[in-house]
Amino acid sequence: MDYRIGEWVNDRTHGQQYRAKFLKTSEPTSLDGIEKYLGSGMIRGIGPVYAKKLVRAFGEKVFDTIEAEPERLREVTGIGPVRANRITAAWAEQKIVREIMVFLHSNGVGTARAVRIYKTYGADAVQVMTENPYRLARDIRGIGFKTADAIAMKLGIEKTAMIRVRAGISYG
Fold this sequence. Notes:
single chain, mainly alpha, 2 domains, 10 helices, 11% strand, elongated
């Protein structure tokens, strides 16, 4: 669930946009989203196989387990002290990147595209996507209007929103 404080504004250049003053995104609650994120290669020591094992072992509490009880990682078959330490260290290093990637994965963005989005927008990726997901079609190679629109729908932008209409005209 997202928690947002802000307002809708009418920008001369970009039309109607949501200007966030505060945005707090939560980690995904879908086990599939968690597994995709963990298996994405962003966390050293965890690939698709270990992502599945970790989600099976800890479910929705897997992030809390890695952060607060890293010694429990060794309960998973195949994770010894070296891999557990590698996972814990990588987890700590990736905090900001992780929050952005989890947000992107939770909103239907695959790993390759999520990496391109992060490389383009950096720490502002979540803000850019929530304010105007249609910028993705303009700014990110490999993302067209259809993909940006699907993301916008997941973010709750109405089919009749002016921001969508303008983007459709621009990319149509």
